[in-house]
Write a structure and sequence with these properties.
Shape: globular
Order of helices and strands: EEHEEEHEEEEHEEHHEEEHEEE
Radius of gyration: 17 Å
Distance between the termini: 19 Å
Largest sheet: 8 strands, mixed, barrel
Oligomer: single chain
Structural class: alpha+beta
Length: about 280
């Protein structure tokens, strides 16, 4: 049995953030073995790492029911786990989505990592598809924020972004798991990024993740990067901008994700702390 470390990402409290499994030496594990181990761990993702060269690693990410091309919170957890064991503070992760540059540091006494996404993009989504998603969520068009239209955003994985007009609407989430799973699978979305904008740079987010066999993610770094690209594409930020995303509060696992959005069309950086769990 491979040694599985357990870290909570985007928090300094082991009871907060999003738990991730981390296997720092996945040598000899094939995909079925990784999938079985991820299902046994039961977290939204487990990262499997094989060192390719000094400071360079091959990383694969498995949810309980499927492999995903990129996972932000497991990347943060893995980088901090490596830093805790004396790795260099500049790392390169080779993932199925592309190469991800990661840096680690100590901030206020806590181990912290920053990932920079692959080049992101944003796509239109058909009105009929939005209606199917809203029906699965039990929401209506009147719940949405007209200033932030539904779009699909990618920064290593694909996410539908839906913005609502009130914090109360975001908090009231009881969705049709199978219905949402079906539409997400057909459009190759990893999560649905549900958001409420408190002000220009402070946002509250939630991420249903039925395609991974998980009802909801408490912190989603890949979706955070995609969301930064989404906001940049709409021209609603004064660039460069740093966003503070609050996630997991409605699940009792509060998480804070810092998202740096540069001008231009380059990658989006996401920063968070991570801490080992008992």
């Amino acid at each position: 049995m491979a040694d599985v470390l357990r870290y909570a990402a985007f928090t300094t409290d082991p009871a907060g953030g999003n738990p991730a499994g981390v296997v720092l030496d996945a040598t000899g594990l094939d995909a079925p073995a990784m999938q079985a181990l991820a299902a046994e761990v039961g977290y939204s993702e487990t990262a499997f790492v094989t060192e390719a060269a000094e400071g360079s690693y091959d990383v694969r990410y498995f949810a309980p029911t499927s492999e995903v091309p990129f996972c932000g919170h497991a990347t943060i957890a893995t980088a901090v786990a490596l830093a805790d064991r004396g790795s260099a503070d500049h790392l390169l992760f080779h993932t199925q989505a592309g190469d991800i540059a990661v840096t680690t540091s100590i901030v206020d006494g806590h181990s912290t990592a920053t990932l920079t996404s692959v080049t992101p993009y944003v796509e239109l989504v058909e009105d009929e598809t939005v209606e199917v998603v809203l029906a699965a969520l039990g929401w209506s068009l009147s719940d949405l924020d007209d200033a932030l239209p539904p779009l699909t955003a990618f920064a290593g994985a694909r996410h539908l972004v839906l913005a609502v007009s009130t914090r109360e609407r975001l908090a009231d989430l009881h969705y049709d798991f199978d219905g949402l799973l079906a539409v997400m699978t057909s459009h190759r979305w990893t999560t649905v990024q549900l958001v409420w904008r408190e002000d220009e740079t402070t946002h509250h987010v939630r991420d249903p993740f039925p395609v991974g066999g998980v009802v909801e993610d408490p912190a989603t770094g890949a979706a955070a990067a995609a969301y930064g690209a989404y906001l940049r594409s709409l021209g609603v930020l004064h660039l460069p901008a740093t966003l503070t995303l609050h996630q997991g509060d409605d699940l009792g696992r509060p998480s804070v994700l810092l998202v740096d959005v540069p001008a231009g069309d380059g990658g989006i950086s996401v920063t968070g702390a991570a801490v080992a769990m008992a």
